[in-house]
Amino acid sequence: MSVSRETPPLCDYEGSRYRTEFWDPSRTYEDAVERLALRALLPPTGERLVEIGAGFGRLIGEYAGYRQVILVDPALSMLEQAREHLAADPRVILVAGSVYDLPLATATCDTTVTVRMLHHLADVPLALTEIARITRPGGAYVLEYANKRHLKAILRYLLRRQGYNPFSREPYEFVELNFDFHPAYMTDVLRQAGFAIEAGRAVSILRLGRLKQLIPAQHLARLDGWLQRPLAPLAPAPSVFLRARAADRDQCAAPASLFRCLHCRQEGPLAQVSDSLVCPHCQTGWAIRQGIYDFRVPG
Ligand SMILES: C[S@@+](CC[C@H](N)C(=O)[O-])C[C@H]1O[C@@H](n2cnc3c(N)ncnc32)[C@H](O)[C@@H]1O
Which domain holds residue 133? Predict the structure, then answer.
């Protein structure tokens, strides 16, 4: 049996120069403050961590305490870059796929991470359903989202220099497939997906061109780090990090395998046949492209 599901459109990073053009030296501050927030919220050790929308694996260095790390991204070229700079770390598994329809079996991951990914989603509740499914009961979900109601947006709105209302709860699409979210909206959709928010950080409050010119990135980042926790309840920063806990379901057997077939949805070991993983139930094959498990389309 095949189950077909319409999934929302993807923000396509295939072939993009995200690594070299976005993370150039002018974003040293952003990179540093995101790492500080991640370190503060991430359970430091565990069996298996998955980062969804991992891009080229920028944050892999933060996952040293995990026995296995899975990086998922729909853009094969991003994962190819990850493969190059990870230099065949045996702990890392690279998977091409989308958060809307993950090829991972239920309750496979101790910790799930999404950073700079949710803002590309037209359907966050659907993505959270999948994230809740793959995160083991009681496991952690560490996420980042772009905040619609940050201080600068409020001031601009009050001075009538900005069209959208930062206080309204619905997501704001500022460019096609680029969304800012209201903190109350994120709290609601996380709760509906079965997550309880445990801790947060207000991140990048000092992301102002003038400040970045005047103060060296490492000093600005240290200052940001001091402010992240006390400012978290007010969420005045453009970026918010949260740690949420997956609901503790009563009975949950350990998963029999890491992957599931996206064609028939069976969760059980897929057999490796040459350069493919083959589902023993429906015989659908999924290509392995130089070490990357490709679940975008059967092949
Ligand atoms: C701005 S990059 C962030 C990469 C990485 N998390 C980081 O912080 O450096 C966004 C990533 O999300 C991925 N992405 C977009 N839509 C996605 C989806 N539906 N499921 C999973 N990843 C997605 C893109 O391919 C891209 O690599």
Answer: 18-255
